[in-house]
Amino acid sequence: MIKGINRRVVEITSTDNDYFEKAVLYVKSDKGDVSTARLEEEAREYMGRLAPRNYRRQIPLALKIGAAAASAAALTLLIYLLICL
Fold it and tell me: What pTM was computed for the model?
């Protein structure tokens, strides 16, 4: 069986990933009239949702939560010491 060979694809060659060299996205047949710039924009947005570029964003959030908990505990201890002394 011969499948349709007249398909539009978007090839992303700069994935900023250590494991993947490039990504190929096939454009839906009903979106064939969309401009190339719009397709590239949508492809980059989609790839960004799949693998965020900056994994470091998760670490500072955990550190902020830990620092907030530690400061709350220290403040609670200080208030306790002031009341009991």
Answer: 0.49
